[in-house]
Amino acid sequence: SYSEEDHQFSVLLSPYRLLDKLLVVCPNVDYCEEVLTRCELEAHLLHRCRGAVTRCIKSSLGCSFQGPRSALQSHLWECPYRDQNAGKNPVAEGEVSTIEVQRRESEGLGVSVVGGCDTPLVCTVIQEVFTEGAVSRDDRLMAGDQILEVNGEDLTQATHNQAVAILAQFFPVCRLTVYRERAEENRPIEKEEILKITLFKHKGKQLGIKLVGKRNGPGVYILTLIPGSLAACDGRLKMDDRVLEINGQDVSYGTQEQAACIIISSPAHVQFVVARRSRPQTPDIIRSAAEHSKYSLFSDDHEKPVSPLCFTCKEKIVTINKDPSETLGVSIAGGVASHRGDTPVYITNINRDGCVGRTNVLKKGDLLVSINGTSLLNITHSETVRIIRQNSGVKVLTLRVIDSREITQGDNFQPTWVYWLQMPQICRLVKTITLLRSPTGSLGFSIVGGTDSTHGNLPIFVKSVVPDTPAAKDGRLKCGDVVLTVNEHSLHSINHTAAVEILKHIDGAVTLSVISWPGTVV
């Protein structure tokens, strides 16, 4: 029967819009398993599908290769024109690009990176391009570019440390597949779609929906679907869908208990009306936060990449007895206004014959908080050296340190981005950045994280800074920065949507308080 409720829903979603929202499978099934809405299929096939037909980057020299994008890397190793210079193809906005970067012997790429599948950013992103190095000399990549593949090795499922290890491998020719976000003003606005889904109950089989409320807003949301349950097998309900109605009863401002009671009391079927946020599509080979979340929820514990944000390094007090003529016997780096930015001071190397080395109570990577009661935080490197020298003549040294979890390779310790993320609050240096909106209203950066993050309750992180926008032109805000406040608004314990709304609706000057940790150098 056709009810008034059905009529209202048909007005809300016209037949044409319903067709556009139909889920379809990418036709390149041999190479791509993407499921997406019908209206997104054309753009997916054109720019993002791993099975899409593409030409060799040496085609201008005469290479006739045409094949799936996933086969391009292996072809490039065998391409008859591989050693010839075809000129530099540009990195296009909003598309996946493959470029070749020439490296000199023992030369690094000359970039720092943040992110990884075990972090809120999910993908691996260039934070900074240094003036010396292969990437700077090539002059095509820039901060904010996402690195998807390196010489055929997929980075989209790599943790931060795995991605760094792959990028650090030396190849004379480094083939990078990258994605550069389009300027924000040209990107589609996040929208919400309303879906009506009916599930029929079966005796002996659970519906399998876990509901949750959110601290910073009203309503009931789907937390997860139990594997093998009716809802999971049906596949239409998704994690983080907001439940608006159940069997015609409005629960948009209801509680979990109210929603559960309606579901339990329904004898034969349960009809849901849900709202789902729909964000602009990124390439299918960039695993979205939702895809990563599904992986995390339904994999065995030993398969999950453990987020570095799950750990905070602990503080300890160390007492060292020494001869007054002895030096500490450690090398240090960092400090306010150091060459990698404002960081605390940390130990890079230890002389095993010195007083610290003999006691074996400190290690490379430990962070220095104070020495004999004098704080070493929020001061420059040279001031730290002066204070350490002032205490060199004493017989007993009391050091307050942060015990590092990171294991170093090589002689001198070099901290990674995740090393800094694990530092406790006393070590975090806050800086203030003021941006003026562009005429289009864009600040020019995107954010991830929040209380509803798929990695748990997290701070708000800067995911990308878009070229030629206020944030990019100012130059101080970097990918991987943690945003603490926006003008007078705190972003502590706030969900992602609320943070976006705050950023969108502040006019004029926008003042950000951020913690900015340096990325890992490769």
From TrEMBL:
GO molecular function annotation: zinc ion binding
Xref: InterPro entries: PDZ, PDZ_scaffold, PDZ_sf, Znf_RING/FYVE/PHD, Znf_TRAF
Chain ranges of the PDZ domain: 98-182, 196-278, 317-403, 432-518
UniProtKB keywords: Metal-binding, Zinc, Zinc-finger
UniProt cross-references to Pfam families, sorted A to Z: PDZ
Superkingdom assignment: Eukaryota
TRAF-type ZnF: 24-73
SMART domains membership: PDZ (SM00228)
Signal peptide (from-to): none
Annotated ranges, domain TRAF-type: 24-73
Protein name: Uncharacterized protein
Organism: Arion vulgaris
Gene field: ORF95338
